[in-house]
Fold each of these.
Amino acid sequence: MTSRVRKVVFLVAGGMLALLLVWGLAGLPHFGAAHAVDGTMLNQVSVRERHITDVVTAVNFDYRGFDTVGEEFIFFAAVLGVALLLRPQSGEGSGHHNDFATGRAVPPTSDALRVLGLGLTPPTVLFAFYIVAHGHLTPGGGFQGGVILATGVLLIYLAGELDDLHGLYTERALERSEAIGAGGFVAVGLLGVAAGSAFLENVLPLGQLGSVFSAGMVPLINLCVGLEIAAGLVLLMTTFLHQTIVLRRLVRTRRTTTDASP
Amino acid sequence: MRFLPYGVAIWLFMVGLYGIVTSRNLVHQIISLSVVQASTYVLLMTVGFRTGAAAPVFADIPTSRAAVDPVVQALSLTDVVVGATVSALLLAIAVQIHKKTGTLDPEDLRGAPDL
């Protein structure tokens, strides 16, 4: 199929799909007129029932907690897949990282970037912990805080050398943190089973509404998720950086190009 | 105005799909997929929005105050996480394809030897 034929086929089929979408979505309540029964009910009960002021977190880690376990393991599996896909292949090994265009060694990090990176890292890490710890009170939680924490680690890389992160890559610290985070969520969920209740059913005291130590198991789960997301994202970043900067083809093999094929 | 956000979701979906179909670069194709996913965020937010309602965070507002649907917001968090992981996996595959074949153009990959 040539690209022209494919474009024509897409325009016909896509036009019909768009019409179908317009027809379907036109049947939904108008923008601003939503009347979600379950959402309204959750807004009314979750503050009193779970001592959580952020209802989105209450849905994610309590009412819909089991789904979030699945979501967390989707992330886990994807990180595993990337680490597996980008592992050193046969004939590859660590090489000197040279500038691609000139072949010279990569120049050292500039002082401005170093100062800015190191200066921004502590507030970023502090902010990440704040977001994780207050997930049940204000917008935030393990997923959001974990991403911010990973940004802090990326700033360390920007301010220094790749070797600073290389220790993390080789020492398996990230894999361990990620596994502990993923397993910790399930372990907290099993507390409910151990207490004779259901999986992820809250068994811890609910605490005083609005305090950091409230909402039962939700802050604990957020801590586990934050650890897993941060470790997983740093693992992703170090894997990609290792792949593009460190790994080199050691044995010169003939590149298979497809230019000759019709 | 009453249909505009739904229209934006449909537009993003179709534009991303067009990018996937006509793309000549795998990285561009993956970003087009992210655009398709972005349409689902818009759709979820639209479905749950109520005019004049507050965010479903009762840290500083009374629980009697009307708030938007928290369920679709929680769903879009799941959506974002899954979208990011799918992009990471696809980019890793693109890196390996480029290493093995020297090209990122899907057209050139036609009839390529086993990767």
Amino acid sequence: MSTSSESWGTRVGLVLAMAGNAVGLGNFLRFPVKAIENGGGTFIIPYLVCFLLMGLPLLFVEWSMGRYGGMKGDHSTPFIMDSMGKKAMWKYIGVFGIFTNLAVAAYYCYIESWALAYAWKSVTGVFSGESATSVSDMFGAYVGLGDPEPIIFWIICLLLNTWILSRGLSGGVEIAAKIGMPLLIFFGLFLAIRGITLSAGEAGAINDGTVGLNFLWQPDFSTIWDFNVWLAAAGQVFFTLSVGMGSIQCYASYLRSRDDVALNAMSAGWMNEFVEVVLGAAILIPISVGYLGIEKVIELTQTGGLGLCFRTLPYLFQQWGPLLAAVAGMAWFGLLFFAGITSSLAMGTPVMGFLRDEFNWGRGRSAWTFGALVLILGAPTVIFFNYGVFDEYDYWAGEVSLVIFAMMEIILFAWVFGMDKGWEEINRNADITVPGIFKYLIKFVAPVILIVVFLGSLLSEGGILDKISNKDIHAQIAAATDPEVLSGLQTQLNYVNGSRMLLVVIFGAIAFMVYKAQQRRDKAAMNAS
Amino acid sequence: MTTSALIMMILVNGIVIGITAYFFLRILRSDPGPDSVDEDVANYPRGG
């Protein structure tokens, strides 16, 4: 446990940092793609229902867990959960709250560095005069590590993250959020207005920007009762809010006892929704459909939003002339960079909190250790990107771990810690009256949704069980006849299995450190008595 | 845009903007700034 006096400087800074934690690349790249895949405008209905029934309850739970743990001197989930659960198993479940942050930061900082590099390339006119194919190929060459540029930008990103973290919450993270979030919203508004006002025939556009908006918002009520649409909506709400990571608990653990959590959680949660629903829906799709048409955009979004973002948009911006292309490129990749860095900073704090609380490390030492770990663990995702290592990290740490951890933490909060005590925690010094229905949502509805989401992830086609058995790669191997392709798939299989083993080793190492930390606590308690 | 898409977009955007602005304004109006850590220590002894 810690006697650290680290705390937030201002309430606005805290809310912006929490919102920055939630706002990430997925707000701009994942949300519009999911909406298109699941009924366009109709998707928003299950999405908002899931936000109210599962997202907000989880936010209340995580904020109040964090403040509760912080009052006892705990700033990371293993010992926050230990103090609530009173059984040893909870602190080992809390390992997810450190593991996820470390493993996700390992690959997330790399995407962040792409955004930084592409903002720089846009400003310096690298895409100017290039063809669509050439701009698209540039991204393939970039992630293929054709030259040292990606490594340089990645190192810059890591150094920047580490330096900000080493300056602490109020002197580093909070300042970054106060600069990053307003700039992100400003850039987002600029691009959204440009996207919406795009006219057919203007600068090579084949459609009005409103065609893309229509495509995105046109309700298709035939999908409203489709279970998979609800599953996708719950998944999107879940990932966009950064719940199930342990970073919200860590940020909230630096609140003071008399601080509110209810209004703060509401404000940060809705700010994320504003960025996702209002800005996220008004940029990527309207601009892409304006230039490429609906069919082509559907084809490009089959593999997610990253390709559209890095392979296509830099070329489309060039149609606006050199000056506006540079400004738009800087705004688009700049907003992605700010969305990324405000999230990766939040991933650093639980790791630092654990090291500081349990091993009495200083802020600088903890921050630089986190940076070094991200460098070491992220290296395979950078070097072996084309072998699927990046995707493995993303799937196991960025998706599966989140669902498992969120499911366990809400069970702990509502059923082990006790809903009456939990409700008291949520409402203690609250600046708003939390409607009583949330008590039942937290106790019954949210856990059921999370269990359904987990079972859906486990059993669905291409889900956890299929992933574990490498069904997809084995099917490709079975179908391959070319020895070269066969050898490539076998190599990919080895890298995929290797990266999973590495993730298991990381989890085990953190669990071992938690065990050692408990031993230190026991020893300290014995010496004190 | 079709009328149904326009209604859906305006309705959802209006709700989200309105609620976000409402809660953030409440935060801005109530920002108390940093207060004493000592009070916390007194109420919730570390390690308790």
